[in-house]
Amino acid sequence: MVRPARRTELIAAAAQTACLMDVMAPKPGNVARGRDLPGLTYRDLVLSAHAIGPAFRRNARGRPGRLILEAVRTTRRHVATNTNLGIVLLLAPLALAAAATRGTFRDRLARVLRDLDLQDARDVYDAIRIAEPGGLGRVAAQDIRSGPTLPLLECMRLAAGRDAVAREYVTGFESTLTIGLPALRRQRDRHVPMPVAIAQVYLVLLAAAPDTLIARRHGAAVARVVRRGARRVLRAGGFLSARGRALAERLDRDLRSRRPPRNPGATADLTVASVFLWLLDDQGLLGRIGAPLRTPRGRRRGSSRARRSRRPRGSPAAPLRAGAAPPPRRPRRRTPPAPRTTAPRHGRRRP
């Protein structure tokens, strides 16, 4: 069992390392070494990765909203643009769930999300105003320009249809836990170098759903076009094949050549969250993740069809109670055979 103080240090280090590893990966359309974007540089992201460490050390067992606000404030002292708002929003509840020890990781994460309150919402709204992300627009309910009146999870529920980070809060980080983390595990099990593995995971996430940052800035149709481009790269092998790498380079040039550039920033945030979880798991801090319970559509629990499906084929039925008569067998309906008809034979009959 890792001691609480040591656990907090490992969580903070994993948050910083995940950000640094992500910026080393050659993700199409994103900032990487030697590949800056207008108003956003490689140096900005490296400084931001170092800046969030103290906030995670001090607040890994506190309130998520306070952690997010402090991390964004510290980042703003080092850089003059929004570099990691989405990352911090994703990593904060994951860090608090990793700091706890009782239950599976999904159970701990569900408790963190369920306990989000109005003060968390106020702190997050303050953090968003400090970061000044682009492309937010105006909404009718719980707009960022006014103070929140609902707990943070309810605010996220209102934004889940248009924002990937909010969708993760509402779904219990479904994309990160079921797409990003398993994809990274597969790459590392094959001993793929970490930058290449992260870039491959980024493509998998980008191909799974349209990037919501691109959708906000350029429209839903453009986001779908970018998603199709990522799928095309993956079909060719992604960063694991020569043809896939060539297509990834072509996709990167296309995204950067647009004005303004088409930056899949929301997908990059999900990628950082996936790397963060992988690092925590590598340190033994996740424990058993647990699986969400799902009932197939059309089958309600307790229905006769569901009860029949629980008994394996070929297994004996439930025994009768002592003294109980067997149930009557339903008579089988017999349909009379159809009359046989003989088609006329043509041609001369052989002797």
CATH C-level class is: Mainly Alpha
CATH superfamily: Triphosphoribosyl-dephospho-CoA protein
CATH fold name, please? Triphosphoribosyl-dephospho-CoA protein
At CATH level 2, the architecture is Orthogonal Bundle
| Strand percent estimate | under 5%
What general outline do the C-alpha atoms trace? Answer: globular
Q: Which class of secondary structure composition applies to the elements?
A: mainly alpha
Unreliable spans: 295-326, 341-351
Characterize the largest beta sheet: strand count, sense, and whether it forms a barrel.
none
Residues in helices, as a percent range: 55-70%
Number of strands: 0
Give the SSE order as H and E letters: HHHHHHHHHHHHHHHH
Gap between N and C termini, in Å? 96 Å
Q: Calculate Rg over CA atoms.
A: 27 Å
Q: Could you report the average pLDDT, rounded to the nearest whole number?
A: 86
What do these coordinates show?
- This protein is mostly helical and 351 residues long.
- It has a single domain (4-282), classed as Triphosphoribosyl-dephospho-CoA protein (Orthogonal Bundle), CATH 1.10.4200.10.
- It contains 16 helices and no strands.
- The protein has helices at residues 4-24, 42-51, 53-59, 64-78, 85-99, 105-114, 118-131, 152-159, 164-171, 174-189, 194-208, 212-218, 220-235, 242-257, 265-282, 304-310.
- Helix 4 (64-78) runs parallel beside helix 7, helix 5 packs across helix 6 and helix 11 crosses helix 15.
- The longest helix has 21 residues, at 4-24.
- 39% of the residues are buried.
- Mean pLDDT is 86; it is low at 295-326 and 341-351.
